[in-house]
Amino acid sequence: MVVGAFQHGMSVGELRTPLLLLLAVACGRALVSWTTELAAHRASAAVKSELRVRVLERAAALGPGWLSGQRTGSLIALATRGVDALDDYFSRYLPQLGLAIVVPVAVLARIVTEDWVSAAIIVGTLPLIPIFMVLIGWATRSQMDRQWRMLSRLSGHFLDVVAGLPTLKVFGRAKAQAESIKRITGEYRRATMRTLRIAFLSSFALELLATISVALVAVTIGMRLVHGDMDLYIGLVILVLAPEAYLPLRQVGAQFHAAAEGLAAAEEIFEVLETPVPASGSQPVPEGEIRFEDVTVRYPGWAHDAVSDASLAVRSGETVALVGPSGVGKSTLLNVLLGFVEPTAGRIRVGGTDLASLDRDAWHARVAWVPQRPHLYAGTIAENVRLARPDADEAAVRGALADAGALAFVEALPDGPDTLLGEDGAGLSAGQRQRIALARAFLADRPVLLLDEPTASLDGETEAEIVDAVRRLAAGRTVLLVVHRPALLEVADRVVHLEPATPVTTSGAASAGSVRAGDEDRRLSEEDRGDPRNREAAEAVRGREAPSGRRVSVLTRVRAMAGPRRGRLALALLLGSLALGSAVGLMATSAWLISRASQQPPVLYLMVAVTATRAFGIGRAVFRYAERLVSHDAVLRMLADTRVAVYRRLERLAPAGLRRARRGDLLSRLVADVDALQDYWVRWLLPAGAAVMVSAASVGFTAWLLPEAGAVLAAGLLTAGAGVPLVSGAVARRAERRLAPARGALAVRTADLLTGTAELTVAGALPARLAEARRADTALTGIAARAATATALGDGLTALVTGLTVVGAALVGVQAVADGRLGGLAMAVVVLTPLAAFEAVTGLPLAAQFRQRVRKSAERVYEVLDAPDPVREPEDPRPAPVSPFPLVLRGLAARYGEQDRDALAGVDLTLEEGRRIAVVGTSGAGKTTLAQVLLRFLDARQGAYTLGGVDAYALDGDAVRRHVGLCAQDAYLFDSSVRENLLLARRDATEADLRDALARARLLDWADGLPDGLATLVGEHGARLSGGQRQRLALARALLADFPVLVLDEPAEHLDLPTADALTADLLAATEGRTTLLITHRLAGLEAVDEVVVLAGGRIVQRGPYTELVAVEGPLRDMAAREAAGELLAGASVR
User: Fold this and answer.
1) 1045-1049 and 964-967 strand pairing
2) Which CATH superfamily is domain 887-1134 in?
3) CB atoms < 10 A from the CB of 604, how many?
4) Cross-strand partners of 1078
5) Quick one: pLDDT at residue 887?
6) Measured between alpha carbons, how far is 1085 from 263 in angstroms, rounded to an integer?
7) Are 357 and 531 in contact (CB under 8 A)?
8) Is 501 left (phi over 0), alpha (psi -120 to 50) or beta?
9) Which molecular-function annotation in GO is an example for this chain (predicted)?
10) Which has more confidence, 185 or 446?
């Protein structure tokens, strides 16, 4: 058409056939583009779904033993963000790779039929692109791996820190952790930028090679036209086709680097998939006794055995109690029996058959197990009780709750058994959580019962109820009890005493042989423990109020994030505009050059155009490289700031404000949703801004040449840049807004699956939880497929509009040349400029989808940032008193937000300097709530709380916690070394200080025997320690902090009685003259405290010196009688 109009003066009517053919090609290209994109994205969604499900299935199959050595946050990130990062690889890189093989060959075949010289130039330069791509790809490989490792580390660290926020706040380290988050996010940003610099360098090299090669072809064509060696038709054909030969290879390079993070994650994914699953036998499970034969367990990296040469028999229908010092290996034996730990030597026989040869699932189907720290899932109480029997009716659930002594407190909750719990049973006391777990075992109704300290954290009255329930449950069953407290011993037919490296002694009908044990009691199989004390981070807040009272949209707030980086973003916008403008300038100049050269002028007349062609070609690559670096650096800095802001907000919310939050969802918000915010800038605002600037310039230039052509181009660009995004955005709106919540839901299901795998496995609930994760993945895949429809529609419509615009420009151009209103030289410019100008708007339909996606992600991030404070902090806090004494509570009443009655009511308490008070009472009486109020983790509903005469609510919360410290009954241990966990209390503590604190907690001998001393890693929430060792390490940390007022919440829980009583005596001796509030179930040693306060139903029902209270009728005397009876039983069992 250009040649016909320019050289032959043909009219529109004479060029009707070429115009119709061009129209048909435009429509065909649009259809192909739509189907290709749709197929690629849907195939990608299906492959990612399959891969994710396989990862989760393999992780579950590898079992608790393997999971205990992994970081939960990293695994969740791998199964969610890691798999999602492969989207560009499957949907763009692989299809583009196929095009890169086919298209250049087809283009070359067409060019060589017209001009072998131009084909030779392309053949000579084309191989340089894959060579450079491979060389630079090798250089990026290690950087990609490092970037993914940093993201994985950030995920693991964040989950660990969020779980331990209450502990961090106790020691005044929560705000300092913001710096740690900032440092890790900074390292992640720098690792990402190192990767991007190389990746962008690769794109720069590929684009520069392709652009210079096209410019070289264009200049060569021009010179040959000047000398009459080529006609204009062939020159224009080659000019249009030459970029198409390079484009697929350029796109392969660009898409490969876009998929870089996914490829790095893929290596880790396949490491999981290729990890061999522990062997399981296939024989049926026989009836008969359970016999341990010389069982020895030594964990990797440990210098001593956790259990050594243990031999023990439990006859069918017999109840055996395992007792012994904390850390002797009792729980380890249960884990071996459950198949979670492989014995280093020896074996276990069931009914005479080796346990290793039995069908593992069939064996678990015969076992009900209550671990030392039972895991409760976010959901209703009834759903937790039904874990092993999901089909149980309401009557059966209530019966199990009654047997476990839990029905009374459950019915007192607002919704009874349908009351929603947070993760780990947040909202219940430790004793209440224990009883829910017992109810779960009672409902399971299985022939083998394994109970690991089932009465831990229970008061004497509730303990007596549980003893009666266990007695009923044990009838006709084989029961193995791990016992520290004596009340349960009356249930046992035999008591087996485990002592380190000494023969076992038994009471009962028969001897059980000898058992020796090492220092480590247990390698917990739950991966994510901690006390989030969670609650939903508050009702969704979609935007803050503007001064005028109207709501500010979240996208306005995202734009406001730019702050001091607006200058860098403006520079990025300018550079992006120059890059796109260079592409348009290159095409327009090349078109003019070839048209002018066809007139065979002196070469000197063409030198300016030749130079401009080279400048535009080089400038396009240089400006694009610079724009990418500047924009990504600015945006990644904003994301780092946002992550720190999210953490700081969570620090303010914890613990009361996170009682219903789900850690998997919080992780998704911090990682995936915060990362999505970058798309607002790099995939929406900056491309849209550059598109507007370049489109305006292109339209202005074309209109200067021919107003009608300018109008056609303006209409086409407006349709493709605004109309098509509106259409595709409308199609995608619902899917895009559901994408982030669906991703969060998948993270929650993944966290549920990975954090409670041990109990799910034994209960037989693992397939159901896997099915829930699959359903969440299917929902996400369906949403992604619907979003892909909109993406494909946008690509197809853009291709159609581009073709129609070129047809329209050609039509008006031909007519203008025929009318003499347009010079022949400008004809090629008018027709070919739209091809380059549409590059500016081609990505806008997808950009509009990213804008919608970002909106929902931003809403989820701002839900956290805008959540109301659960605890009032004064705007202008008063200076903290020099001394907190006296600490006074008057008429104090408090409740948690979702409760309809007070957990504490009318409490009066005074702590003078040096005074020691013990608080006792039944489980759920309000003892732990009192500790929460004292530490300002929970606001009092009414009453007064003063420190040294100053209103505690007029002080900063951290200032209160500098005076009042806590050792909680479920204090969090971080995934670090023993030393780092201790130094949390005092960063300047010396080695002597650490050893002294360990000695006071009766843990120094254990620490001296560790393989790496105080540098030994404890695992997530102390997974590599026994329950008693965890408790004593937390106690040592609290003692090291040296708080003026120390609240000890069940400090001797999970310890054997001699150790517990000795530790209590040591604590009371060590705290003589120091202000202490001791919360305890056990009464031994309380003669040494100044006052005993008895709580019941949140009220003080008795108070006074221990000796006076125990001598009169009342609740304390009853508690003492039950405890004394239990000790008599323990003594009888020993005899």
Assistant:
1) parallel
2) P-loop containing nucleotide triphosphate hydrolases (3.40.50.300)
3) 7
4) 918, 1048
5) 93
6) 61
7) no
8) left
9) ABC-type transporter activity
10) 446
Q: Which amino acid is at 919?
A: V
Model confidence at 1056, pLDDT cuts 50, 70, 90, reads low
Q: 3-class DSSP state for residue 544?
A: coil
Asked if 1061 contacts 1084 with a C-beta cutoff of 8 angstroms, the reply is: yes
Query: Given its phi and psi angles, is residue 413 left (phi above 0), alpha (psi -120 to 50 degrees) or beta?
Result: beta
606-640 per-position pLDDT tens digit: 778 878 888 888 888 889 889 989 998 999 888 88
Residue 907: predicted pLDDT = 92
| Sign of the C-alpha dihedral computed for residues 44, 49, 54 and 55 taken in this order | positive
Element (H or E) spanning 498, and its range? none
Tokens of 434: 């224990």
State whether the Cα torsion 648-649-650-655 is positive or negative. Answer: positive
**Hey, what are 1040's tokens?**
């090291």
Residue 1127 confidence class, pLDDT cut points 50, 70, 90: low
Best CA proximity match to 400, nearest among 767, 372, 388: 388
Q: Note whether 2-258+555-865 and 887-1134 share their fold.
A: no
- Given the structure tokens 């036209």, which residue do they identify? 225
Average pLDDT over residues 661-667: 76
**Residue found by looking up tokens 């520290």 in the block:** 484
- Which residues sit opposite 353 in a β-bridge? 350
Whether the per-residue pLDDT at 530 is higher than 80: the answer is no
User: Rounded to an integer, what distance in angstroms lies between the CA atom of residue 386 and that of residue 399?
Assistant: 12
**Interior CA angle at 304 toward 300 and 308, to 5°?**
105
pTM of the model: 0.69
Domain ranges of the chain: 2-258+555-865, 887-1134
Q: Could you tell me if 861 and 643 are in contact, meaning their C-beta atoms sit under 8 angstroms apart?
A: no
Copy the structure tokens of residue 954: 């007029």
Looking at domain 2-258+555-865, its CATH class is mainly alpha
Pure H helices in 681-723: 686-705, 707-718
- Which H or E element spans position 443? helix 430-444
Residues 1045 and 912 sit within 8 Å (Cβ to Cβ): no
